[in-house]
Specification:
The complex is a heterodimer of chains A (177) and B (241). By secondary structure, chain A is mainly α. Helices cover 58% and strands 9% of the residues of chain A. The chains are: A mainly alpha (177), B alpha+beta (241).
Chain lengths: 177, 241
């Protein structure tokens, strides 16, 4: 996740214009931001609710898109989150992804998959989100439900995703035992 | 005598007709401001042909260092240096930088083609409007295509709507809108320019599409040049890159 999403301690806008922090942790609104334990970068002091609200609003008002790397927003921020908070966020993301994968494939079915297959599915859902994986990969899902991981490997290909990332997932599926 | 008079009359009418056409030419228009922020320290402040042609040389506010085995590293900080590095197979090993530079390359190529737009004699684009009706008129290539299944459906589809089933459109500004499909696809469509690209006298339109998904980090971008050959005709794809 960190390799593909980055690990950013300050608020930034993702490619959809959502305020985000850490390893792709989306802050849906200002209330969600207030629940995150931000600290002031320069002093290490816990940020106040007003500081979080102010920074959220100023970042939200900025331009966004692929041209705006997370570092673009850094000079406009004063608040950060610690490495430990980011790691907790990642663990929570993984739990959410697991729950979504169980929804798509069935809890017992998912549990029966080899570890490499689970890893491949984690990458796919992290990249595609649940709706796209569920609705626009019908042949992939059909092969998964049939435990035909070699055919699923072929159908796991994603257009405009790097060859390296596609190969990583394809190999996990094709070589699963 | 009669023959000469007729020839003179024909010449005058012909010249007048040409003058009228020249006088009615539609100059290319550009929308640079919304697509250039984020790259330059000094923002692009005018939407002119001169600015389009300067964009390829204008220095970005940041520099990416690309490498090639056995060669000195190359600093990439403009479209010109990016296209040069790309032609010489310079690369970056950083996953995110790779993805960003791929997107920049498409943007640079789009600006290069925008600089080639000529005045048009005729246009059927005046009724263009961001709306739920637009995906029904646009070619299927504008849809968000990710899976092999999407690719197979694309081969048979006749419109963007047929591929994506757009359920909501949100205008961002005059030239830009967000399109949401019924399976988590989020597309941002921007009108970049209008002008005659293929020199058939009919005005064409340069579009830029950024694709992302709900709940995932997927991203892709494409530029399209489309046209409309009659007021009620669907849009036709001239080029995709």
């Amino acid at each position: 996740m960190m390799k593909y999403e980055g690990n950013v301690p300050h608020m930034y806008l993702d490619t959809k214009g959502y305020v985000t922090v850490g390893v792709g942790h989306l802050l849906k609104d200002v209330e969600a931001a207030k629940k995150v334990p931000f600290i002031v970068r320069d002093t290490g002091v816990k940020a106040t609710i007003q500081q979080i609200e102010g920074e959220f609003k100023s970042i939200k008002a900025m331009p966004w898109g692929k041209k705006y790397e997370a570092t673009y927003y850094k000079p406009f921020t004063t608040l950060v989150i610690s490495e430990a908070v980011r790691e907790t966020q990642v663990e929570n993301h993984i739990k959410t992804f697991e729950s979504e994968l169980k929804t798509i494939f069935g809890a017992s079915e998912f549990a029966s998959y080899p570890d490499d297959v689970k890893l491949a599915l984690f990458d796919l859902i992290f990249n595609l989100g649940m709706p796209k994986l569920k609705d626009t990969f019908p042949n992939f899902n059909k092969h998964m439900k049939a435990h035909d991981f070699k055919k699923a490997a072929i159908e796991s290909n994603r257009k405009d995703v790097s060859a390296e990332r596609n190969t990583y997932v394809r190999n996990l599926l094709a070589n699963a035992k | 005598m009669i023959k000469n008079t007729l020839l003179l009359a024909f010449t005058v009418i012909s010249s007048t007709a040409c003058a009228n056409i020249a006088g009615n030419e539609i100059a290319p228009t550009y929308n640079l401001k919304s697509n250039t922020r984020g790259l330059f320290i000094d923002p692009v402040t005018s939407d002119s042909m001169e600015q389009v042609n300067m964009l390829l040389y204008k220095q970005w506010y940041f520099t990416k260092v690309l490498t090639l085995d056995g060669k000195p590293d190359m600093d990439v900080n403009s479209c010109k240096t990016l296209l040069k590095a790309s032609n010489e197979n310079y690369k970056t090993t950083n996953y995110q930088a790779k993805s960003i530079l791929k997107d920049f390359k498409k943007t640079c190529s789009t600006w290069r083609d925008m600089g080639k737009l000529k005045p048009s004699k005729e246009s059927f684009l005046s009724s263009f409007k961001h709306s739920l009706a637009l995906p029904k008129q646009m070619p299927p290539e504008l849809s968000l295509i990710i899976s092999n299944d999407d690719e197979r459906r694309l081969a048979k589809a006749s419109s963007w709507e047929e591929m994506s089933h757009i359920k909501k459109v949100e205008p961002v500004n005059e030239g830009q809108a967000m399109y949401y499909d019924n399976s988590g696809g989020i597309q941002r469509l921007t009108i970049m320019a209008k002008g005659d690209y293929n020199q058939d006298g009919i005005e064409d339109m340069v579009l830029y599409m950024e694709n992302s998904v709900e709940g995932g980090d997927y991203y892709s971008s494409y530029s399209y040049i489309v046209t409309r050959l009659a007021a009620d005709a669907p849009y036709t794809l001239i080029k995709q890159f």
